[in-house]
Amino acid sequence: MTRRVLTVTAAGTALVVSSLLGPGAAAADDPSARELVDQAKKNLLDAESVRLRLTDHSTDTRTSRTQPVSMDLALDQDGNCAGTLRMGAGGGSVELVKRGAEVWMKPDTAFWKAQVPGGAGDAVAELFKDRYIHGSTHNALLKGMADTCDLTSFQKEITADSSDPRQLTKGARTKVDGTEVIPLKGTSEGKQVTLYVTSDTPHRLVRATQKGGGTDLALSFSDYGRPVPSKTPSAGESVDVNKLQDELRNA
Fold this sequence. Notes:
alpha+beta
């Protein structure tokens, strides 16, 4: 298996969020829109945990086996997470669990076949069928995937963004997944942006979309402050990552 897929991190998603929110994003002649965005950004930066869902139908992502077209992760500032990622172009999916420095990942057959060339992919898929690869964050094969779980790094990326403020226009109140929100619409780098911020306090970002120029993605945020599920796979469900590395050397 190539290591490239295991370098998927939260950084790319964080940069998308930061480009959408921007520092001090404002609507001309409408300070209440400024307040909505600033408070939404602050609450996202202050969140101790959150559930992040990504759907990416962008042209480059859909044709890549190493980038997720969808992601559903509960993650926190302690580096814990649980959820799934699905790659583009039939590249399969991965279940991911992380507690502290321990990582478990369970790829499906399509993932193994996409990442391990030739018939070796089938052999590896059968060998590790329905089992988690288990190791630590110090392992090079697992580190990139584990970095996806780092909410703190995600938040630092948003804080570090230096993009220019953009004009946002308030739309009529609507609902997203049953939550009343205020849409804020604008453009960023030629792409259409819509932020959906809760109408009630605390004002939180619920959904963000970006479209145009081959980009078509949506990010959803929920479960602010809800603990990440703490259940981890049992020893019987897991295989040490060193066994995987031995198989890949022999593949």
